[in-house]
Amino acid sequence: MSYRSWLTAFGLWAILAAVAMAQAPCKVLIVDGQNGHKWAETTPVLKVLLEETKLFTVDVATSPPRGEDVSGFKPNFAAYDVVVSNYQGASWSEETQQALLDYVKGGGGLVIYHFACAAFPQWKEFNEMIGLGGWGRRNEKDGPYIRWRDGEIVRDMSPGRGGGHGPMQPFQLVIREPNHPITEGLPTKFMHVDDELYGWLRGPAKNLTVLATAFAPKDKGGSDEHEPLLFTVSYGKGRVFQNALGHTGKELKSVAFIVPFQRGVEWAATGKVSQKVPEDFPGPDKTSVRD
Ligand code: ZN
Q1: Which residue has the higher pLDDT, 15 or 92?
Q2: Do 188 and 174 meet the contact criterion of CB atoms below 8 Å apart?
Q3: How far is the CA of 106 from the centre of ligand 1 (A)?
Q4: Please, what sign has the CA dihedral across residues 208, 78, 24, 46?
Q5: Which of 16, 80, 86 is nearest to 49 (CA)?
Q6: Could you read off the pLDDT of 108-122 as tens digits, one per residue?
Q7: pLDDT band at residue 270 using 50, 70 and 90 as cut-offs
Q8: For 245-267, what is each residue's pLDDT tens digit?
């Protein structure tokens, strides 16, 4: 082979390698196995929602069931670009806790889906990492409520419960940070289907950016506040995203859940979002549901 042929061959190889790297899907790990919610129903739906973007490959790490010894549960977080938590249950071993912290601090992505925000109330660093959580006897000792009042974020230290919701109800999300990769290009207001409207979440809320809120009316069991439902936290070099929507598989058919979830997982993995806003994205008054 001549020197020139070698150069051409090497050039072609370099281009193909670059293309392959650009298109290499992100590796996602969904963690489940215990949850006060129907994790066995929702995890497969979350997996399909991610796979259908063609941007992700998805593995699932399922812990031993509630009441059994979880000390041997050691997912290899470091092998993934992003971890999606659908877990709420027994405390993990110190080794597994430390592995998750090291992974996110070192630049890993973490996505907290719905009731996963109720996990690990006693684990201080986890609560720093997720920003806001609920239930598990959380209250004012755990940090402020984060409120959107008169066009700005307020840290509300009023005493009271952490976490709650009224009966299932449809609600409108309002984007509060339109210049974030997850929300960029989305309509400012969009409707979600009947779901639990999480409220009164509390936590350290450091380095937290509220992306979208929904108003929780008192006459429907709410706080009469604009509740943060989509938000991010920066923790070390890592990116954390919470999507508080999606009680069961039924609510995961709402495009108001699907699109922020798909975009949030990509952002947590890479810091960017390449996904276009789909045609069926809901507007301010009408929900949009996929079969
Ligand atoms: Zn729920």
Answers
A1: 92
A2: yes
A3: 31
A4: negative
A5: 86
A6: 999 999 999 999 999
A7: very high
A8: 999 999 999 999 999 999 999 99
Other Cβ atoms less than 10 A from the Cβ of 135: the count is 18
Query: Cα separation of 109 and 270, whole Å?
Result: 8
Kindly give, in sequence order, each residue whose CB lies less than 8 Å from that of residue 42, ignoring residues fewer than 6 positions away.
86, 113, 114, 246, 248, 249, 252
- What is the band of 24 on the pLDDT scale with cuts at 50, 70, 90? confident
Q: Which tokens belong to 233?
A: 């936290």
Distance 36 CA to ligand 1 centre (A): 8
Measured between alpha carbons, how far is 206 from 14 in angstroms, rounded to an integer? 42
- Cα(214) to centroid of ligand 1, in Å? 16
Is the confidence at residue 167, as pLDDT, over 70? Answer: yes
How many A from CA of 271 to the centre of ligand 1?
A: 28
Q: Report which DSSP code applies to 159.
A: -
Look up residue 27 and give its two tokens. Answer: 């590796």
CB-based neighbours (< 5 A) of ligand 1, an ion: 196, 247
Task: Report the alpha-carbon distance of residue 275 to residue 268 in Å, rounded.
Answer: 14
Would the pTM of this model clear 0.90, i.e. be above it?
A: yes
Both structure tokens of 259: 């699109």
Q: Is 231 helix (H, G, I), strand (E, B) or coil?
A: strand
Q: Tell me, what amino acid is at 109? A: G
Q: CA 19 to CA 13: how far, in whole Å? A: 10
Domains observed in the chain:
26-270 (3.40.50.880)
Q: How far apart are the first and last CA of the chain?
A: 56
* Bigger pLDDT: 102 vs 17: 102
Gap between the Cα atoms of 66 and 63, Å rounded: 9
* Single-letter amino acid code for the residue at 260: P
- Residue 249 and residue 270 in contact, taking contact as beta carbons nearer than 8 Å: no
